[in-house]
Amino acid sequence: VTGLETMHTKTTCPYCGVGCGVVVTTERRQHNGRDVIELIGVKGDPDHPANFGKLCSKGSKLAETAQANVYGQVRASQPLMRTDRAQTVSPGTWNDALDHVVDKYAELITQHGPDSVAFYISGQLLTEDYYAFNKLAKALIGTNNVDTNSRLCMSSAVSGYKRTLGADAPPCSYDDVALADCVFIAGSNTAYAHPILFRRLEAARAQNPNHRLIVVDPRTTDTAQMADLHLKIQPGTDVMLFNAMLNILMQQGWLDMATINLHTEGFDEYARGVAEYSPALAARVCGVKEADILQAATWFAKSPKTLSLYCQGLNQATTGTDKNTALIALHLATGQIGRAGAGPFSLTGQPNAMGGREVGGLSTLLPAHRELSNPVHIQEMEAFWGVKKLSSAPGATAVELFDRLEKGDIKAVWVACTNPAHSLPNSQKVARALQKAELVVVQDAYLTPATVEYADVVLPATTWGEKEGTVTNSERRISRVRSALPPHGEARHDWAIVVDFARRLEKALASRGVPSSSIEPGKTLFPWNTPEDIFLEHRETTRGRDLDITGLGYDILEHLGPQQWPMPEGASQGTARLYEDLNFPTASGKARFVFAPYEPVAEDTDARFPWKLNTGRLRDQWHGASRTGTLPEFFSHEAEPVLALNSADYQRLGLNEHSWVRVKSRRATVTLRVKPDDSVAPNQAALPMHWGPEFFGGKGGVAGVNALTTEAFDPYSKQPELKHSAVHIARA
Ligand code: SF4
């Protein structure tokens, strides 16, 4: 083996929404007379503004996980298919696999209409992949049944922003973490979920002796341990807390009346609503001291610059939109918005949760933040795509999609780059739906996800290190993802699989007399040869919209580095901060106060299910662990799913280090180890989310962690309440 050439490729970490830049080092070598490219290592990119060279435990092991995935043979390397459910899948050609799916999709669309098929995609996909899937579903097939695991991640933050500020646009930048005097973290274990951003917070606190950190969380997480004030609230009581804080602001006269009067609407009604929310009431319901609520309100209002960081603790709830709305109201009422170091800042869980929203890759959206409910937006996209008619009927959202699949209304589903049999709530119901489907297509880089078990067709996709495109992180920053390695085996890029399939389907639908588009014969809606072609089309959809990126291209990202949208044509750089003029993208230009009364969690405890179960992330694992689960060192933090109970409860149940417990919800039962952990409050339990059915007994839709969780969802965002389920716990 001879080293011939060393290459360094700048790309982006594929894990969390911090979106750190990385530099991949590869070597081109001669091996047995063949040119091979080997992955040598991954380092943080010192020039990337999200991380300036730093990486967390997951990012710093990207080279090792990429190699472990290949050598551990967990990668999908060739198409697999079956035409008979009694058989198992076996290797086939790309032509056979795609033609089989085209035949079935065309048959179903012809016989049962476009809404009989669906796509369930992922915040792990690149923006270009997302755009391609969205256009395939909406423009060619004519269905809005394209939803994504981003629905489990950010949709309540989206509805909160739209309801109050008028647009799905996080107004802040990571730089604001260093500029804030007070940081209010609600429902986010930032230390685990966004580690490099947390490093910035640690550095800011080290430099500013007057810095205040308030953490609202039912658990004493590593993040909460650093707080000056930890409000250890009862799960799901955030709206009660935020309303009481606003009540205090009103009582104390700490409102910014100039901002309220000039730049907002609806405050009077809001004030009448929160008048009922006394600190004493909130202290009782939330389970915290009245004095602590007063302290939190004081620091929030009186600090020169207050920044909120929030994540799944607010979003994954049946009241997720209300929680977001109530928190943003605190910022509007105190004028803590539109200034450096101040504002509400949602943290995206996934690497490209925002990119999917930008291209409208959800069942309730159209490209560039257009709405299905707006006839003008529909007409704009019909004209842009050159199609006769787009459906305005909202498609099925994540939970609804698998409901309809189980009922038989949706008959075929294409799952790309996500693992719903593991990650959706009530996951055994999802397994039943997949079993019932007439066709399940799984497009993935890995063979290990639980959903692969149900696939009739497995389409091997490229993954991090091999792909080209863009992603958008939590601060609206678009970064390039670049390929440093050749595709594994016969794997193809996600966008390229969509294009190949779509061109075949165009012909199949036309031959069946289903001309869904007005394009001329012989032309295609999918004329792209590279991801850059797709980016340029996506870019044009944003012209004049709130996320206008007509000033951005791959060439500019190459020269200027990652940029924050909007960046309209002619701009020399992206936009760090939104709403600095306090002019909001609503009809009146004013931000809105929308009062929401406190509602308890969907599934409250009772005599049969008396414990409150919370689920969450570990420091060193990522989602279903397709990638992180291949390295032994990632299990040194937590080796398996262990139920955490308060030590008083642990003793009361007579448990010890050899004990196992049976955790039973209204949907399923799982048996696992248990540990005393006083970060968890009495009568509550916490469980990491990374272990699916395969850990608990392998195939056949057995219960994983999410078999326990409820699929009840927020009526506005349709995001399910993964953060709270009522369970019964007994010694096994
Ligand atoms: Fe990757 Fe997030 Fe870690 Fe950065 S903080 S290295 S984006 S996992």
What's the helix and strand layout?
Layout: E1 2-12, E2 21-31, E3 34-44, H1 57-60, H2 62-71, E4 80-81, E5 90-91, H3 94-112, E6 117-121, H4 127-141, E7 146-148, H5 155-164, H6 175-179, E8 182-186, H7 190-193, H8 195-207, E9 212-216, H9 222-225, E10 229-231, H10 238-252, H11 257-263, E11 264-265, H12 267-274, H13 279-286, H14 290-302, E12 306-310, H15 312-315, H16 320-334, E13 343-346, H17 353-358, E14 365-366, E15 370-371, H18 375-385, H19 398-407, E16 412-416, H20 420-423, H21 427-436, E17 439-444, E18 457-460, E19 469-472, E20 477-481, H22 494-511, H23 531-541, H24 554-560, E21 563-564, E22 591-592, E23 611-616, E24 642-645, H25 647-652, E25 660-664, E26 669-676, E27 684-688, E28 725-731
Parallel strand pairs: 6-7, 6-16, 8-9, 8-12, 9-10, 11-22, 12-13, 16-17, 17-18, 23-27, 24-26
Antiparallel strand pairs: 1-2, 2-3, 4-5, 4-18, 14-15, 19-20, 20-21, 23-28, 24-27, 25-26, 25-28
Helix pairs in contact: 3-22, 4-22, 4-23, 5-16, 10-13, 10-14, 10-16, 13-14, 19-21
The structure holds iron/sulfur cluster.
Quick structural overview:
Residues 6-70 form the 4Fe-4S Mo/W bis-MGD-type domain. The protein has 732 residues and is α/β, with parallel strands linked by helices.
